[in-house]
Amino acid sequence: MNVQPKTLLQKENNFSEWYNEILKRAEILDVRYPVKGVYVWYPYGYKLRNLIYTILRSLMDKEHKETLFPLLIPKEELMKEREHIKGFEEEVFWVTKGGSTELDIPLALRPTSETAIYPVFRVWIRSHRDLPLRIYQIVNTFRYETKHTRPLIRLREITSFKEAHTAHADRADAEEQVKKAVALYRKFFDELAVPYVITRRPEWDKFPGAEYSIAFDTLMPDGKTMQIATIHLLGESFARTFDIKYEDKDGSLRYVNQTCYGISERCVAAVISVHGDEHGLMLPPGVAPIQVVIVPIVYSSEGKNGEVEKVCLAVYEKLKEAGIRAFFDNSEDRPGAKYYRWEMKGVPLRIEVGPRDIRNNRCEFVRRDNFSRMQVPLGDVVSEVKGTLNKIQNDIAKRARETFFANIYKTEGDEEMEELSPKAAHGIVSIFLCESERCGQEIEEHLGVNVLGEALYGDGTENGEGGKSEGKCMICSKKGKKVYVARAY
RNA sequence: GGGGUUGUAGGGUAGCUUGGACUAUCCUUCGGCGUUCGGGACGCCGAGACCUGAGUUCAAAUCUCAGCAACCCCA
User: Cα A100 to the chain's mean position, in Å?
Assistant: First the structure.
Protein backbone atom coordinates (compact mmCIF):
# COMPACT_ATOMS: atom_id res chain seq x y z
CA MET A 1 0.00 0.00 0.00
CA ASN A 2 1.33 3.35 -0.98
CA VAL A 3 1.12 6.15 1.53
CA GLN A 4 3.58 8.45 -0.18
CA PRO A 5 2.01 11.73 -1.07
CA LYS A 6 2.27 12.69 -4.69
CA THR A 7 2.96 16.31 -4.20
CA LEU A 8 3.79 17.30 -0.72
CA LEU A 9 6.81 19.27 0.09
CA GLN A 10 9.84 18.30 1.97
CA LYS A 11 9.79 19.83 5.40
CA GLU A 12 13.49 19.56 6.11
CA ASN A 13 14.89 20.94 2.90
CA ASN A 14 12.60 23.86 2.49
CA PHE A 15 10.83 24.65 5.67
CA SER A 16 9.64 28.06 4.56
CA GLU A 17 7.80 26.69 1.58
CA TRP A 18 6.45 23.77 3.57
CA TYR A 19 5.13 26.10 6.23
CA ASN A 20 3.32 28.41 3.83
CA GLU A 21 1.88 25.50 1.91
CA ILE A 22 0.60 23.79 5.05
CA LEU A 23 -1.11 26.90 6.33
CA LYS A 24 -2.97 27.09 3.06
CA ARG A 25 -3.76 23.45 2.40
CA ALA A 26 -4.72 22.57 5.94
CA GLU A 27 -6.84 25.72 6.04
CA ILE A 28 -5.22 27.32 9.01
CA LEU A 29 -4.57 30.81 7.72
CA ASP A 30 -5.47 32.63 4.52
CA VAL A 31 -2.61 34.92 3.59
CA ARG A 32 -4.47 36.72 0.82
CA TYR A 33 -5.48 39.74 2.84
CA PRO A 34 -4.09 42.82 1.12
CA VAL A 35 -2.34 44.37 4.13
CA LYS A 36 1.20 43.48 5.04
CA GLY A 37 1.62 41.30 8.08
CA VAL A 38 -2.03 40.61 8.81
CA TYR A 39 -3.86 37.41 7.94
CA VAL A 40 -7.25 35.73 8.03
CA TRP A 41 -7.99 32.69 10.17
CA TYR A 42 -9.89 29.93 8.40
CA PRO A 43 -12.57 28.26 10.53
CA TYR A 44 -10.45 25.13 10.92
CA GLY A 45 -7.40 27.10 11.99
CA TYR A 46 -9.49 29.18 14.30
CA LYS A 47 -10.87 26.07 15.94
CA LEU A 48 -7.35 24.77 16.47
CA ARG A 49 -6.36 28.11 17.92
CA ASN A 50 -9.26 28.08 20.31
CA LEU A 51 -8.60 24.55 21.48
CA ILE A 52 -5.02 25.53 22.24
CA TYR A 53 -6.23 28.58 24.13
CA THR A 54 -8.74 26.53 26.07
CA ILE A 55 -5.83 24.66 27.57
CA LEU A 56 -4.04 27.85 28.51
CA ARG A 57 -7.23 29.39 29.86
CA SER A 58 -7.93 26.47 32.12
CA LEU A 59 -4.39 26.75 33.49
CA MET A 60 -4.62 30.50 33.91
CA ASP A 61 -8.05 30.52 35.48
CA LYS A 62 -6.83 28.74 38.58
CA GLU A 63 -5.07 31.82 39.88
CA HIS A 64 -5.76 34.63 37.44
CA LYS A 65 -8.88 36.55 36.57
CA GLU A 66 -9.61 37.30 32.95
CA THR A 67 -10.20 40.94 32.04
CA LEU A 68 -10.28 43.12 28.97
CA PHE A 69 -8.52 46.42 28.51
CA PRO A 70 -8.93 48.85 25.60
CA LEU A 71 -6.99 48.67 22.38
CA LEU A 72 -6.29 52.40 22.34
CA ILE A 73 -3.67 53.97 24.56
CA PRO A 74 -3.27 57.74 24.87
CA LYS A 75 0.12 58.98 23.81
CA GLU A 76 1.08 60.38 27.22
CA GLU A 77 0.54 57.09 28.98
CA LEU A 78 2.40 55.13 26.38
CA MET A 79 5.37 57.51 26.60
CA LYS A 80 5.59 57.56 30.39
CA GLU A 81 7.99 54.72 30.93
CA ARG A 82 11.10 55.85 29.18
CA GLU A 83 12.97 52.59 28.85
CA HIS A 84 9.85 50.75 27.94
CA ILE A 85 8.95 53.10 25.11
CA LYS A 86 12.50 53.08 23.80
CA GLY A 87 11.98 49.43 23.05
CA PHE A 88 8.77 49.93 21.13
CA GLU A 89 8.78 53.47 19.77
CA GLU A 90 9.55 52.58 16.18
CA GLU A 91 6.91 49.87 16.10
CA VAL A 92 3.84 51.77 17.23
CA PHE A 93 0.82 52.28 15.01
CA TRP A 94 -0.86 55.62 15.66
CA VAL A 95 -4.43 56.75 15.32
CA THR A 96 -4.20 60.47 14.66
CA LYS A 97 -7.54 61.37 13.14
CA GLY A 98 -11.20 61.02 13.95
CA GLY A 99 -12.86 61.35 10.61
CA SER A 100 -11.19 64.40 9.13
CA THR A 101 -10.49 65.95 12.52
CA GLU A 102 -6.96 65.77 13.83
CA LEU A 103 -7.02 64.27 17.34
CA ASP A 104 -5.69 66.45 20.18
CA ILE A 105 -4.09 63.43 21.74
CA PRO A 106 -2.86 60.76 19.36
CA LEU A 107 -3.90 57.24 20.29
CA ALA A 108 -1.61 54.26 19.99
CA LEU A 109 -2.76 50.79 19.05
CA ARG A 110 -1.34 48.78 21.95
CA PRO A 111 1.98 47.15 21.05
CA THR A 112 1.63 45.49 24.48
CA SER A 113 -0.63 46.49 27.31
CA GLU A 114 1.46 47.59 30.28
CA THR A 115 0.70 51.25 29.74
CA ALA A 116 -3.00 50.56 29.27
CA ILE A 117 -3.30 48.41 32.36
CA TYR A 118 -1.04 50.03 34.93
CA PRO A 119 -2.82 53.39 35.19
CA VAL A 120 -5.87 51.32 36.11
CA PHE A 121 -3.86 49.24 38.57
CA ARG A 122 -3.11 52.55 40.23
CA VAL A 123 -6.78 53.09 41.05
CA TRP A 124 -7.59 49.44 41.69
CA ILE A 125 -4.83 48.82 44.19
CA ARG A 126 -5.07 50.63 47.51
CA SER A 127 -4.43 48.13 50.27
CA HIS A 128 -2.24 45.13 50.89
CA ARG A 129 -5.54 43.28 50.90
CA ASP A 130 -5.82 43.94 47.17
CA LEU A 131 -2.61 41.99 46.64
CA PRO A 132 -1.56 39.89 45.01
CA LEU A 133 -3.50 40.97 41.96
CA ARG A 134 -3.34 38.62 39.01
CA ILE A 135 -5.15 39.28 35.79
CA TYR A 136 -4.83 38.21 32.20
CA GLN A 137 -6.37 39.05 28.87
CA ILE A 138 -6.35 37.59 25.38
CA VAL A 139 -6.25 40.44 22.92
CA ASN A 140 -4.82 41.61 19.63
CA THR A 141 -1.76 43.84 19.64
CA PHE A 142 -0.16 45.81 16.85
CA ARG A 143 3.45 46.27 15.92
CA TYR A 144 4.76 47.96 12.85
CA GLU A 145 7.24 45.25 11.93
CA THR A 146 9.74 46.37 9.35
CA LYS A 147 11.40 43.01 8.84
CA HIS A 148 9.72 40.47 6.61
CA THR A 149 6.52 39.41 8.24
CA ARG A 150 5.57 35.77 8.47
CA PRO A 151 2.19 34.20 9.25
CA LEU A 152 1.78 33.45 12.99
CA ILE A 153 5.45 34.18 13.58
CA ARG A 154 6.14 37.82 12.82
CA LEU A 155 2.94 39.79 12.53
CA ARG A 156 1.82 43.35 12.42
CA GLU A 157 -1.36 42.34 14.15
CA ILE A 158 -0.87 39.68 16.77
CA THR A 159 -4.43 38.46 16.94
CA SER A 160 -4.19 36.78 20.28
CA PHE A 161 -1.64 37.92 22.77
CA LYS A 162 -2.31 36.09 26.00
CA GLU A 163 -0.79 38.44 28.51
CA ALA A 164 -0.84 38.23 32.27
CA HIS A 165 -0.04 41.06 34.67
CA THR A 166 0.44 40.66 38.38
CA ALA A 167 1.14 42.98 41.29
CA HIS A 168 2.59 41.92 44.62
CA ALA A 169 3.38 43.32 48.02
CA ASP A 170 7.08 42.59 47.80
CA ARG A 171 9.80 41.34 45.59
CA ALA A 172 9.91 37.87 47.07
CA ASP A 173 6.28 37.36 46.21
CA ALA A 174 6.83 38.68 42.68
CA GLU A 175 9.75 36.33 42.17
CA GLU A 176 7.59 33.51 43.44
CA GLN A 177 5.06 34.48 40.78
CA VAL A 178 7.74 34.27 38.10
CA LYS A 179 8.40 30.70 39.14
CA LYS A 180 4.72 29.89 39.07
CA ALA A 181 4.43 31.38 35.61
CA VAL A 182 7.31 29.25 34.42
CA ALA A 183 5.64 26.16 35.83
CA LEU A 184 2.35 27.11 34.22
CA TYR A 185 3.88 27.63 30.79
CA ARG A 186 5.75 24.37 31.09
CA LYS A 187 2.48 22.55 31.59
CA PHE A 188 0.97 24.38 28.68
CA PHE A 189 3.70 23.48 26.21
CA ASP A 190 3.92 19.96 27.55
CA GLU A 191 0.27 19.51 26.67
CA LEU A 192 0.97 20.81 23.18
CA ALA A 193 3.88 18.36 23.00
CA VAL A 194 6.14 21.26 22.07
CA PRO A 195 9.64 20.93 23.54
CA TYR A 196 11.55 23.97 24.76
CA VAL A 197 14.55 25.36 26.54
CA ILE A 198 14.11 27.94 29.26
CA THR A 199 16.65 30.71 29.56
CA ARG A 200 17.19 33.98 31.31
CA ARG A 201 17.67 36.48 28.52
CA PRO A 202 20.92 38.44 28.63
CA GLU A 203 20.81 41.93 30.14
CA TRP A 204 21.05 43.56 26.74
CA ASP A 205 18.11 41.59 25.38
CA LYS A 206 15.55 41.78 28.16
CA PHE A 207 12.06 43.23 27.93
CA PRO A 208 12.29 47.03 27.97
CA GLY A 209 11.54 48.13 31.50
CA ALA A 210 12.03 44.73 33.11
CA GLU A 211 14.62 43.71 35.66
CA TYR A 212 15.02 40.43 33.94
CA SER A 213 13.27 38.29 31.34
CA ILE A 214 12.84 34.56 31.12
CA ALA A 215 11.99 32.99 27.79
CA PHE A 216 10.89 29.69 26.32
CA ASP A 217 12.37 28.79 22.94
CA THR A 218 11.54 25.87 20.74
CA LEU A 219 13.40 24.60 17.69
CA MET A 220 11.95 24.92 14.22
CA PRO A 221 12.64 22.37 11.49
CA ASP A 222 15.04 24.70 9.71
CA GLY A 223 17.27 24.69 12.77
CA LYS A 224 16.33 28.13 14.03
CA THR A 225 14.90 28.69 17.45
CA MET A 226 11.66 30.50 18.00
CA GLN A 227 10.73 32.33 21.17
CA ILE A 228 7.33 31.06 22.26
CA ALA A 229 6.82 32.60 25.69
CA THR A 230 8.32 35.29 27.88
CA ILE A 231 8.08 36.05 31.58
CA HIS A 232 9.32 39.31 33.06
CA LEU A 233 10.08 40.48 36.53
CA LEU A 234 9.24 44.15 36.40
CA GLY A 235 10.11 44.96 39.99
CA GLU A 236 9.11 48.49 40.97
CA SER A 237 9.98 50.30 37.76
CA PHE A 238 6.47 50.52 36.35
CA ALA A 239 5.00 51.00 39.81
CA ARG A 240 7.13 54.11 40.23
CA THR A 241 6.30 55.41 36.80
CA PHE A 242 2.57 54.83 37.16
CA ASP A 243 2.50 55.50 40.87
CA ILE A 244 1.00 52.19 41.90
CA LYS A 245 1.09 52.12 45.71
CA TYR A 246 -0.65 50.25 48.46
CA GLU A 247 -1.04 50.82 52.16
CA ASP A 248 0.74 48.12 54.10
CA LYS A 249 -0.35 46.56 57.38
CA ASP A 250 1.73 49.06 59.31
CA GLY A 251 0.12 51.99 57.54
CA SER A 252 3.05 52.83 55.28
CA LEU A 253 2.67 53.39 51.55
CA ARG A 254 4.71 51.09 49.36
CA TYR A 255 5.17 50.51 45.67
CA VAL A 256 3.92 47.20 44.34
CA ASN A 257 6.26 44.71 42.77
CA GLN A 258 5.14 43.46 39.37
CA THR A 259 5.50 40.72 36.84
CA CYS A 260 4.06 40.20 33.41
CA TYR A 261 4.19 37.30 30.99
CA GLY A 262 2.74 36.41 27.67
CA ILE A 263 2.33 34.01 24.81
CA SER A 264 1.31 34.86 21.25
CA GLU A 265 -0.02 32.78 18.40
CA ARG A 266 3.50 31.60 17.88
CA CYS A 267 2.39 28.71 20.06
CA VAL A 268 0.13 27.68 17.17
CA ALA A 269 3.02 28.05 14.74
CA ALA A 270 5.07 25.81 17.02
CA VAL A 271 2.46 23.05 17.12
CA ILE A 272 2.21 23.11 13.35
CA SER A 273 5.94 23.24 12.67
CA VAL A 274 7.25 20.86 15.28
CA HIS A 275 4.88 17.98 14.55
CA GLY A 276 3.93 18.29 10.88
CA ASP A 277 5.43 16.12 8.16
CA GLU A 278 5.31 15.72 4.40
CA HIS A 279 1.69 14.59 4.62
CA GLY A 280 0.69 17.79 6.33
CA LEU A 281 -0.32 18.66 9.84
CA MET A 282 0.03 16.19 12.65
CA LEU A 283 -1.99 17.43 15.56
CA PRO A 284 -1.69 16.16 19.11
CA PRO A 285 -5.14 14.75 19.99
CA GLY A 286 -5.45 17.24 22.82
CA VAL A 287 -5.78 20.14 20.40
CA ALA A 288 -7.03 18.50 17.19
CA PRO A 289 -10.31 20.08 16.03
CA ILE A 290 -11.24 16.66 14.70
CA GLN A 291 -9.75 13.82 16.72
CA VAL A 292 -11.27 10.96 14.77
CA VAL A 293 -12.53 10.89 11.21
CA ILE A 294 -14.74 8.05 10.06
CA VAL A 295 -14.39 7.09 6.41
CA PRO A 296 -16.97 4.75 4.90
CA ILE A 297 -16.02 2.38 2.13
CA VAL A 298 -19.21 2.29 0.10
CA TYR A 299 -20.11 0.43 -3.06
CA SER A 300 -22.74 1.53 -5.50
CA SER A 301 -24.49 -1.80 -5.16
CA GLU A 302 -25.16 -0.74 -1.61
CA GLY A 303 -25.34 3.01 -1.99
CA LYS A 304 -26.23 5.66 0.50
CA ASN A 305 -28.17 4.64 3.56
CA GLY A 306 -26.75 1.16 3.24
CA GLU A 307 -25.31 -1.00 5.94
CA VAL A 308 -21.91 0.72 5.87
CA GLU A 309 -23.38 4.13 6.44
CA LYS A 310 -25.54 2.87 9.28
CA VAL A 311 -22.57 1.38 11.06
CA CYS A 312 -20.52 4.55 10.53
CA LEU A 313 -23.26 6.68 12.00
CA ALA A 314 -23.59 4.37 14.98
CA VAL A 315 -19.85 4.62 15.61
CA TYR A 316 -19.99 8.38 15.18
CA GLU A 317 -22.82 8.73 17.71
CA LYS A 318 -21.02 6.60 20.26
CA LEU A 319 -17.86 8.69 19.95
CA LYS A 320 -19.78 11.92 20.23
CA GLU A 321 -21.50 10.69 23.36
CA ALA A 322 -18.11 9.86 24.81
CA GLY A 323 -17.02 13.46 24.28
CA ILE A 324 -14.66 12.72 21.41
CA ARG A 325 -14.42 15.21 18.55
CA ALA A 326 -15.42 12.95 15.69
CA PHE A 327 -16.38 13.58 12.10
CA PHE A 328 -18.15 11.29 9.66
CA ASP A 329 -16.95 12.04 6.14
CA ASN A 330 -19.78 10.87 3.92
CA SER A 331 -18.85 13.17 1.04
CA GLU A 332 -18.79 11.91 -2.54
CA ASP A 333 -15.03 11.57 -2.85
CA ARG A 334 -13.36 8.24 -3.08
CA PRO A 335 -11.73 6.90 0.07
CA GLY A 336 -8.17 7.62 -1.04
CA ALA A 337 -8.92 11.29 -1.59
CA LYS A 338 -10.40 11.46 1.89
CA TYR A 339 -7.35 9.85 3.44
CA TYR A 340 -5.09 12.49 1.96
CA ARG A 341 -7.38 15.31 2.95
CA TRP A 342 -7.64 14.36 6.60
CA GLU A 343 -3.97 13.55 6.85
CA MET A 344 -3.27 17.05 5.58
CA LYS A 345 -5.49 18.43 8.30
CA GLY A 346 -3.67 16.46 10.94
CA VAL A 347 -6.55 14.33 12.23
CA PRO A 348 -4.83 11.94 14.66
CA LEU A 349 -6.97 8.86 14.04
CA ARG A 350 -8.95 7.53 11.08
CA ILE A 351 -11.57 4.81 11.32
CA GLU A 352 -12.43 2.91 8.15
CA VAL A 353 -15.61 0.89 7.84
CA GLY A 354 -16.27 -1.25 4.77
CA PRO A 355 -18.32 -4.30 3.87
CA ARG A 356 -15.39 -6.56 4.69
CA ASP A 357 -15.26 -5.10 8.20
CA ILE A 358 -18.97 -5.35 8.76
CA ARG A 359 -18.93 -9.03 7.85
CA ASN A 360 -16.44 -9.48 10.67
CA ASN A 361 -18.17 -7.07 13.05
CA ARG A 362 -15.15 -4.78 13.25
CA CYS A 363 -13.61 -1.59 11.90
CA GLU A 364 -10.06 -0.47 11.14
CA PHE A 365 -7.98 2.19 12.86
CA VAL A 366 -5.19 4.03 11.07
CA ARG A 367 -2.93 6.31 13.08
CA ARG A 368 -1.82 9.62 11.59
CA ASP A 369 1.54 9.65 13.35
CA ASN A 370 2.87 6.30 12.13
CA PHE A 371 0.18 5.03 9.70
CA SER A 372 -0.09 1.79 11.63
CA ARG A 373 -3.33 -0.09 11.09
CA MET A 374 -5.29 -2.18 13.54
CA GLN A 375 -8.58 -4.01 13.54
CA VAL A 376 -11.02 -3.27 16.31
CA PRO A 377 -14.26 -5.03 17.23
CA LEU A 378 -17.16 -2.63 16.80
CA GLY A 379 -18.16 -3.12 20.41
CA ASP A 380 -14.82 -1.81 21.68
CA VAL A 381 -14.59 1.30 19.54
CA VAL A 382 -14.97 3.94 22.23
CA SER A 383 -12.47 2.51 24.69
CA GLU A 384 -10.02 1.69 21.89
CA VAL A 385 -10.28 5.21 20.50
CA LYS A 386 -9.55 6.70 23.89
CA GLY A 387 -6.59 4.44 24.42
CA THR A 388 -5.21 5.03 20.95
CA LEU A 389 -5.56 8.81 21.17
CA ASN A 390 -3.62 8.69 24.41
CA LYS A 391 -0.87 6.67 22.82
CA ILE A 392 -0.71 9.03 19.88
CA GLN A 393 -0.43 12.02 22.18
CA ASN A 394 2.43 10.40 24.07
CA ASP A 395 4.22 9.17 20.98
CA ILE A 396 4.03 12.53 19.27
CA ALA A 397 5.43 14.20 22.37
CA LYS A 398 8.17 11.63 22.68
CA ARG A 399 9.22 11.97 19.09
CA ALA A 400 9.29 15.76 19.32
CA ARG A 401 11.45 15.65 22.43
CA GLU A 402 13.87 13.22 20.90
CA THR A 403 14.32 15.35 17.81
CA PHE A 404 14.70 18.44 19.94
CA PHE A 405 17.33 17.12 22.29
CA ALA A 406 19.21 15.45 19.47
CA ASN A 407 19.77 18.96 18.17
CA ILE A 408 21.16 20.46 21.35
CA TYR A 409 24.93 20.32 21.31
CA LYS A 410 26.75 20.42 24.57
CA THR A 411 30.26 21.75 24.65
CA GLU A 412 32.94 20.96 27.17
CA GLY A 413 34.60 24.32 26.82
CA ASP A 414 37.60 23.48 24.67
CA GLU A 415 36.00 23.46 21.24
CA GLU A 416 37.13 25.83 18.54
CA MET A 417 34.70 28.27 17.00
CA GLU A 418 35.07 26.52 13.67
CA GLU A 419 33.77 23.27 15.11
CA LEU A 420 30.74 24.92 16.62
CA SER A 421 29.72 26.96 13.64
CA PRO A 422 28.09 24.17 11.62
CA LYS A 423 26.31 22.89 14.71
CA ALA A 424 24.92 26.30 15.51
CA ALA A 425 23.59 26.44 11.98
CA HIS A 426 21.00 23.78 12.63
CA GLY A 427 20.43 23.52 16.32
CA ILE A 428 21.06 24.87 19.76
CA VAL A 429 24.56 24.95 21.17
CA SER A 430 25.20 25.14 24.86
CA ILE A 431 28.43 26.90 25.77
CA PHE A 432 29.94 28.76 28.69
CA LEU A 433 29.84 32.51 28.58
CA CYS A 434 30.32 35.36 31.01
CA GLU A 435 27.72 38.06 31.38
CA SER A 436 29.43 40.86 29.48
CA GLU A 437 27.71 42.16 26.40
CA ARG A 438 31.02 42.32 24.56
CA CYS A 439 31.63 38.61 24.85
CA GLY A 440 28.03 37.98 23.91
CA GLN A 441 28.33 40.05 20.78
CA GLU A 442 31.56 38.44 19.85
CA ILE A 443 30.08 34.98 19.97
CA GLU A 444 27.04 36.18 18.05
CA GLU A 445 29.20 37.55 15.29
CA HIS A 446 31.56 34.62 15.07
CA LEU A 447 28.92 31.94 15.06
CA GLY A 448 26.17 33.89 13.37
CA VAL A 449 23.85 33.18 16.26
CA ASN A 450 21.85 34.85 18.97
CA VAL A 451 22.57 34.35 22.62
CA LEU A 452 19.32 32.99 24.00
CA GLY A 453 20.53 33.30 27.53
CA GLU A 454 21.56 31.46 30.64
CA ALA A 455 20.14 27.95 30.78
CA LEU A 456 17.61 27.71 33.57
CA TYR A 457 16.11 24.71 35.23
CA GLY A 458 18.87 22.80 33.52
CA ASP A 459 19.17 20.18 36.21
CA GLY A 460 19.86 17.72 33.46
CA THR A 461 17.17 15.18 33.99
CA GLU A 462 14.32 17.11 32.47
CA ASN A 463 16.22 18.81 29.71
CA GLY A 464 17.79 15.52 28.89
CA GLU A 465 21.32 16.82 28.76
CA GLY A 466 22.78 17.49 32.19
CA GLY A 467 26.37 18.58 32.63
CA LYS A 468 27.99 21.42 34.53
CA SER A 469 26.19 24.71 34.86
CA GLU A 470 29.37 26.77 35.17
CA GLY A 471 32.63 26.97 33.29
CA LYS A 472 35.10 29.32 31.63
CA CYS A 473 33.76 31.95 29.28
CA MET A 474 34.54 30.91 25.72
CA ILE A 475 35.71 34.38 24.85
CA CYS A 476 37.44 35.93 27.85
CA SER A 477 38.02 32.81 30.00
CA LYS A 478 36.53 34.46 33.05
CA LYS A 479 33.88 32.71 35.04
CA GLY A 480 30.88 31.96 32.87
CA LYS A 481 27.52 30.28 32.99
CA LYS A 482 25.97 27.77 30.72
CA VAL A 483 24.13 29.62 27.98
CA TYR A 484 22.29 28.51 24.88
CA VAL A 485 23.04 30.06 21.53
CA ALA A 486 21.25 29.47 18.24
CA ARG A 487 20.08 31.17 15.14
CA ALA A 488 16.77 32.68 16.16
CA TYR A 489 13.59 33.77 14.46
C1' G B 1 18.71 48.94 7.18
C1' G B 2 20.68 47.37 1.99
C1' G B 3 20.02 44.49 -2.50
C1' G B 4 17.30 41.28 -5.79
C1' U B 5 13.06 38.68 -7.92
C1' U B 6 7.91 38.47 -8.78
C1' G B 7 2.44 39.80 -9.40
C1' U B 8 -2.15 36.23 -15.38
C1' A B 9 -9.25 32.28 -12.89
C1' G B 10 -9.85 29.64 -5.95
C1' G B 11 -4.48 27.35 -6.37
C1' G B 12 -0.25 26.45 -9.81
C1' U B 13 1.29 28.01 -14.70
C1' A B 14 2.22 29.32 -20.56
C1' G B 15 2.45 33.81 -23.21
C1' C B 16 6.13 39.16 -22.08
C1' U B 17 12.65 39.21 -24.97
C1' U B 18 10.69 41.47 -30.58
C1' G B 19 3.37 45.53 -28.46
C1' G B 20 -1.22 43.47 -33.02
C1' A B 21 -4.68 37.00 -35.03
C1' C B 22 -4.88 36.58 -27.05
C1' U B 23 -11.63 35.37 -28.59
C1' A B 24 -5.12 34.38 -23.26
C1' U B 25 -2.31 28.00 -22.74
C1' C B 26 -2.13 23.68 -19.78
C1' C B 27 -2.91 21.26 -14.87
C1' U B 28 -5.88 21.66 -10.75
C1' U B 29 -10.35 23.70 -8.68
C1' C B 30 -15.65 24.79 -8.75
C1' G B 31 -21.07 23.60 -10.58
C1' G B 32 -24.41 19.86 -13.25
C1' C B 33 -25.39 14.73 -15.00
C1' G B 34 -23.91 9.63 -15.24
C1' U B 35 -20.66 5.50 -14.20
C1' U B 36 -17.46 4.58 -9.89
C1' C B 37 -15.63 3.72 -4.57
C1' G B 38 -10.32 -0.92 0.64
C1' G B 39 -4.73 5.06 -0.88
C1' G B 40 -5.54 11.22 -4.81
C1' A B 41 -11.44 7.74 -10.37
C1' C B 42 -13.42 8.54 -15.29
C1' G B 43 -16.74 10.52 -19.29
C1' C B 44 -19.75 14.54 -21.11
C1' C B 45 -21.46 19.66 -20.36
C1' G B 46 -20.57 24.33 -17.96
C1' A B 47 -17.93 28.38 -14.80
C1' G B 48 -13.68 31.28 -13.67
C1' A B 49 -7.90 35.56 -14.68
C1' C B 50 -3.96 39.66 -17.21
C1' C B 51 -2.54 43.60 -8.99
C1' U B 52 -3.90 49.20 -8.88
C1' G B 53 -3.01 53.96 -11.09
C1' A B 54 -0.59 57.07 -14.50
C1' G B 55 2.25 57.27 -19.03
C1' U B 56 4.13 55.86 -24.16
C1' U B 57 1.35 54.13 -28.65
C1' C B 58 -3.08 53.79 -34.02
C1' A B 59 -2.70 49.47 -30.63
C1' A B 60 -0.45 47.22 -23.91
C1' A B 61 -0.96 40.84 -20.36
C1' U B 62 3.62 42.40 -23.03
C1' C B 63 7.28 48.75 -22.71
C1' U B 64 8.14 53.06 -18.70
C1' C B 65 7.14 55.20 -13.83
C1' A B 66 4.66 55.14 -9.13
C1' G B 67 1.78 52.61 -5.46
C1' C B 68 0.25 48.15 -3.07
C1' A B 69 1.45 43.08 -2.12
C1' A B 70 4.47 38.63 -1.99
C1' C B 71 9.05 35.91 -1.96
C1' C B 72 14.52 35.47 -1.59
C1' C B 73 19.50 37.07 -0.16
C1' C B 74 22.84 40.12 2.77
C1' A B 75 23.59 43.28 7.42
Answer: 41
Co-location of A428 and A359 in the same domain: no
Q: If we measure between CA atoms, which residue out of A144, A288, A143, A150 comes closest to residue A222?
A: A150
- Number of helices (H), then strands (E), belonging to chain A: the values are 14, 24
Q: In sequence order, what are the residues at sequence separation of 6 or more whose Cβ sits closer than 8 angstroms to the Cβ of residue A367?
A: A348, A349, A373, A388, A392
Residues 424-463 of A with CB under 7 A from strand B: none
List the A40 CA – B19 C1' distance (angstroms): 39
Nearest nucleotide (C1') to alpha carbon of A36: B69
Report the distance separating Cα A37 and Cα A15, nearest Å. 19
Cβ of A470 near strand B (distance < 7 A): no
Which nucleotide C1' is nearest A445 CA?
Answer: B75
State the complex-level ipTM.
0.93
Q: Out of A240, A275, A310, pick the residue that ends a domain.
A: A275
Pairing of strands A428-433, A408-410: parallel
**Cis peptide bond N-terminal to A335, omega within 30:** no
Distance CA A302, CA A294 (A): 18
Query: What value does the mean pLDDT take over residues A363-380?
Result: 97
Band (A168; pLDDT cuts 50, 70, 90): very high
Residue A267: give the domain boundaries: 15-275
Exposure string for A351-369, b = 16+ CB within 10 A, e = fewer: bbbbeebbeeebbbbbbbb
**In-domain check, residue A7:** no
- Closest C1' nucleotide to A368's CA: B39
Chain B: positions less than 7 Å from a protein CB are: 1, 10-11, 35-41, 68-73, 75
C1’ B59 / CA A123, Å: 72
CA-CA distances (angstroms) from residue A378 to A26, A353, A358, A367? 30, 10, 9, 17
User: For A426-463, what is each residue's pLDDT tens digit?
Assistant: 899 999 999 999 999 999 988 889 999 999 875 444 45
Q: Is the CB of A68 under 7 A from strand B?
A: no
Give residue numbers, 317 to 346 of A, with CB < 7 Å from strand B. 332-337, 339-341, 343-344
Whole-number Å distance, CA A33 to C1' B67? 17
Per the structure, how many domains does chain A have? 3
The residue-averaged pLDDT of A271-295 equals 96
Residue A260 CB-density burial (10 A; 0-12 exposed, 13-18 middle, 19+ buried) = buried
Q: Which CATH number do you get for residue A207?
A: 3.30.930.10
Backbone angles phi, psi at A431, to 5 degrees: -135, 175
Closest by CA to A482, choosing from A470, A474, A472, is A470
